[in-house]
Design goal:
Number of domains: 1
Helix content: 40-55%
Order of helices and strands: HEHHEEEE
Radius of gyration: 24 Å
Number of helices: 3
Structural class: alpha+beta
Strand content: 15-25%
Mean pLDDT: 81
Length: 160
């Protein structure tokens, strides 16, 4: 009589592989969510940094105009062409970081007034819903959509 060595059957191995597959898919989904939240946090931090830079510009020159872009910046090249003045290099770096995370950024005067500003960018985690993070010269911040009251929320273009 031959002695059979004990080993794993094919069914047992397939079950273990299936369990590992399910666990790895759960972990990867969690990592994607964490990555998206981290990008949202980076955009919010960048907007806050840019607002601080605008306040420094106003403190030095009495106007925000040197750091106001010419509309939406969609690429790093746009960022490199949008700003002038003492803090231009800092503004370009912050803009490039925001654009790389959010895909776009807007920094400009609110309702054509050189004494107020609004900075905003889309949030990557809610891109499908069209949410933006806004910060205005009053210090007001909001996360808003692009609906009827989207640009009038505190900190946004029509309500800096």
């Amino acid at each position: 009589m031959r002695n059979r060595s004990r080993g794993f059957t094919l069914i047992e191995l397939l079950v273990v592989i299936a369990i590992i597959g399910v666990l790895s898919s759960v972990v990867l989904a969690s990592l994607n969510t964490a990555r998206t939240r981290a990008r949202d946090a980076a955009v919010k931090a960048g907007i806050r940094q840019f607002a601080t830079l605008l306040q420094l510009e106003y403190s030095d020159s009495g106007t925000f105009s040197a750091l106001q872009g010419y509309g939406w910046d969609y690429t790093v090249a746009d960022c490199n062409n949008s700003f002038s003045g003492t803090y231009a290099a800092n503004a370009r770096g912050i803009c490039a970081n925001i654009v790389s995370n959010a895909g776009a950024m807007y920094a400009g005067t609110s309702i054509n007034n050189a004494t107020t500003f609004s900075v905003f960018a889309p949030l990557p985690g809610s891109a499908a819903q069209g949410y933006y993070f806004c910060m205005g010269s009053s210090g007001a911040v909001s996360v808003n959509g692009t609906g009827a009251n989207g640009w009038t929320s505190p900190g946004c273009h029509a309500n800096p």
